[in-house]
Fold this protein.
Amino acid sequence: MLLHRGMRDRGFTLVEVLVAVLLLIVIFAGVAQLFASSTMANATSRRTTLATMAAADKMEQFHAVAFDDPALAASPPGTLLTDLDGYFDVPIAGCVRRWAIEPLPAHPTTALVFRVAVSGRAGRGCPADARLVTIRTRKVP
């Protein structure tokens, strides 16, 4: 009697197996794409963080210098756009960090504006761009 059972007792058909395999392939392809885009997003975030840290490091250097120090004299025009001696360096391979120092127009004797830009050099790719601006005021007694 066991030999006369219906086709339902035999197992899966080839079509059912192919459909299941196709569904698994589609699901795994979606998961692989998710991992790839997640990896790219993490790499972009890391590069942006490195550029921002390079800019923040320069800001900290400015704040460590006394307000009357000649190193905080106003910078010439265009220091954020070109490599002028004394107003740029290379903190990360392929990147250039430029800065500008200028008196705050409303309070030129008691406040300075610091601008720092980290970006790519000509012909080389920088990991990311970052721009920071801060104002430092003199403590008036």
